[in-house]
Amino acid sequence: QETVTERDQIVHELQNKIQQQEEILQEKEELLRGKCLFEEELREVQKGKSQVGEAATAQLQDVEESYANCVSQVKNLTQHNEEITSLNSQLQVNNTLLENITQHTQQSRELMTELSDCQQNLTQIEKRSRLVRDCTDIQYKGATESGVYQIFPQSSAGGVSVLCKTQEGHMWTVFLVRQRETTQVNFTRTWHDYKTGFGDPSGEYWLGNDNLHALTSGGHRYRFRVIATNLLGEQRSAVWETFSVANEASKYRVTLGGYSSTSTLGDALTSQHTWALMDGMSFTTVDRDHDTWSD
């Protein structure tokens, strides 16, 4: 009986040990299976990590390339900025030069205009130096016969026709011719007519107050001579050594004096005892009364 019990006990212990061994084997198997799964997962993780690393490396390379491109572009932009700055400096210099050239051009134009004016003035002076101012200049150029000539008084660039009369070795500039018996020209004229002149120097005429002023204001001294013929055909003459006519602003005021003692007509214009005192008198016409006489 005891032997059977011991045997059963031993069998039971063996069975327990076997069961324990089986449990241990099962645990090891599970651990091994878990290890295999872990290793598989680890490999997957490593594989994924490798792929991520490759992608990251590729992205990093892209970033590095982009950065290198940016650096290159920045360098190019910097270089372009430097070139632009240099061009701006050159442009400013060119603008300054252009302004100077423009200013010099304007100055040159002004100088050319002034030079042209000077040349024109010089030409006029040269022309006037070759032209005759009055009948005396015509005589100096060799003319000896009385007649109508062209003279160029001061400020009269176009010239004016005038009667030159030769008497007693002198050629006189005649500014008034009036025939009492064969009058053809009306001498009752307006201020403007007497200002500009009228008539024909080959017949009856008035030279014009502007021309008289131009003649007598040019720095030359003029004598005033009057020749009168009476109804019997007898001629008388009178000479005054000083004669000039002022400008229109001064109403063509007459300066007359120095009655010559050789005159045969008598001093009817400057004598203090005559009503026709002419020296210092302003010119008068039918439409402008500037004298002191009573009508």
From TrEMBL:
Intracellular or extracellular location(s): Secreted
InterPro entries given in the database record: FIB_ANG-like, Fibrinogen-like_C, Fibrinogen_a/b/g_C_1, Fibrinogen_a/b/g_C_dom
Gene3D superfamilies the UniProt entry points to: Gamma Fibrinogen, chain A, domain 1
Listed Pfam families: Fibrinogen_C (PF00147)
DNA-binding as UniProt keyword: no
GO cellular component term of the entry, any: extracellular region
Statement: the UniProt record of this protein carries the keyword Nucleotide-binding: no
Domain Fibrinogen C-terminal: 126-295
Protein name: Fibrinogen C-terminal domain-containing protein
Broad class of the protein's primary localization: secreted
UniProtKB keywords: Coiled coil, Disulfide bond, Glycoprotein, Secreted, Signal
PANTHER family reported in the protein's UniProt record: FIBRINOGEN ALPHA CHAIN
